[in-house]
Structures are given as structure tokens and as C-alpha cells.
Specification:
The chain has 221 residues and is an all-alpha fold. Helices cover 77% and strands 0% of the residues. The structure holds protoporphyrin IX containing FE.
Length: 221
């Protein structure tokens, strides 16, 4: 990982438009995924594509755990922009709430893995990326406690972008759903692959961005 050990007051490279658009698209997808799941849990229906009906049935079988995961996750993604972009809010509480919320999301994500639709391929992705997320969040917390705000910010952004990897898995799943007649792959086969692709994309993007930023902000290092 690109560690920012040289976090001094240097000119900051502004984030490019595509990165900000990606952030907001991920946030919208994450919110929509929660709304869709809450509606499906509240009003179960047996109409629609069989693969989706089967998924709804699986998540309804552990509804309490699913809600314990997705409601804090919703709160996390709604608050994250207020913690990351100072133009929205200078209040401290959104950032403070991200730490307990993130811990709940991470812990319940491990628990959700016990029922994972995509089996061990999905579990292995969750083990890696969820652990990276919790590690980044913990480091952000440690830097916050030490008053090292630039390093705290960097690890918090890393944690948020990693967490939003769950949103990137959704369009990937969409492509698998759309092509399932050709590929003969069902959710049990492609969920795990989608988890690996989605989280990897977000991880690569955030690490590449930090490396680029380091090169621009500290050209002689
Ligand atoms: C570190 C980040 C996260 C990880 C590792 C993670 C992991 C998981 C896992 C393993 C499942 C169960 C999937 C299955 O049974 O196959 C799940 C379900 C779910 N997660 Fe997360 N999650 C994370 C963050 C989020 C966020 C930020 C949201 C949205 C705000 C979210 C929304 C959902 C929803 C809605 C479900 C229910 C299944 C569905 O409707 O597709 N998750 N998550």
C-alpha cells in the first residue's frame, strides 16, 4: 500500500472528475441495494426472474442478520461524504460515527459469509477485502487518536473506497445476470467472481490514486 509517511503541508492534487463521479455512482448503487433488499424483506414476492426470487428467499431466511448488516451499511455510506468532503460539513460527528458503524458492517459481513451465495470463492474475497477494510478503518482511528489528521484522512478514504467495492460488484453481477443464458452461470457460480472483481477494482483505484498523488505532491521523493 502507498503509505503517506510524508504528510506535510504540500499543495494537494485535486481529485479528478472521473474519481468523484465513480464515488457518487458507488454511493447511489449502495443505497439502492439496501432499499431494494429492505423492500424485498418487507414485501416478499414470488413473482419475477427465478434467480432473483431464489436470492430473495435466501436473504429472507436470515433477515435479522441481513438487516443488522445493511442498515448500518446504509448509514455509513450516507455519512461518508460528510466525513470525506469538508465542503459538505465541518461537524465532527459524521466522522466519529463512521468508526462504530464500520465495525458493525465489517463484523456482520463476516457473519453474512456463513450463508454466502457464492460459496468459498465469495468467502475468500470477503475475508481479504473485509479485513483490509477493517485494518484501514483501525489505522484511521489510531491516527485520529494521535491527532495525525492527514494520515487519518488517507486511511479513512482507503477504508471508504474499499467498502464501496460492494457497490462495484453490483454492475458486475448485472453483466453476469444478463449473460447467464449464454454462460449458463447462476448466482452460486458468479457471486464469488463478482465479489473478487468489484472489490479489486476499488482497491486498485484507491491505491493507484494515492501513488499518483504522492508523485505529484512529493516529486523529488
Ligand atoms: C466491507 C464492505 C462489505 C462487505 C465485505 C460486505 C459483505 C457482504 C456479504 C458477504 C453479504 C452476503 C452475500 C451472500 O450471502 O452471498 C452481503 C450482503 C449484503 N450487503 Fe454487504 N458488505 C459490505 C458492505 C456493504 C455496503 C456498504 C452495503 C450498502 C450500503 C451493503 C449492502 C448489502 C446488501 C443489500 C446485502 C444483501 C444482499 C443483497 O441484497 O444483494 N454491504 N454483504
Amino acid at each position: 500500500m502507498a503509505e503517506d509517511v510524508h504528510a506535510h503541508s504540500t499543495p494537494r492534487a485535486p481529485s479528478p472528475l472521473w474519481l468523484r463521479v465513480g464515488f457518487w455512482v458507488c454511493t447511489l448503487i449502495a443505497v439502492a441495494a439496501v432499499v431494494r433488499r429492505v423492500v424485498a424483506l418487507a414485501f416478499p414476492s414470488s413473482f419475477g426472474p427465478p434467480q432473483l426470487v431464489e436470492l430473495d428467499r435466501i436473504f429472507a431466511s436470515h433477515a435479522v442478520l441481513t438487516l443488522a448488516h445493511i442498515l448500518p451499511a446504509l448509514a455509513f455510506v450516507v455519512l461518508a461524504p460528510f466525513a470525506i468532503f469538508s465542503r459538505f460539513s465541518r461537524a465532527a460527528w459524521p466522522e466519529q460515527l463512521l468508526f462504530p458503524l464500520g465495525a458493525i458492517v465489517g463484523m456482520t459481513a463476516y457473519a453474512m459469509s456463513a450463508y454466502s451465495v457464492g460459496g468459498w470463492i465469495e468467502r475468500s474475497a470477503v475475508l481479504l477485502f473485509n479485513s483490509l477494510f477493517l485494518f484501514s478503518l483501525t489505522r484511521a482511528w489510531i491516527y485520529k487518536m494521535r491527532g495525525q489528521s492527514l494520515l487519518k484522512r488517507r486511511w479513512l478514504i482507503r477504508a471508504v473506497v474499499l467498502l464501496l467495492g460492494i457497490a462495484t460488484t453490483r454492475p458486475v453481477m448485472g453483466v453476469f445476470f444478463a449473460t447467464s443464458k449464454l454462460t449458463h452461470l447462476g448466482p452460486r457460480q458468479f457471486f464469488g467472481i463478482a465479489f473478487w472483481i468489484g472489490f479489486s477494482i476499488n482497491w486498485i483505484v484507491v491505491e493507484s490514486w494515492f501513488r499518483f498523488k504522492n508523485r505529484v505532491e512529493h516529486p523529488r521523493r
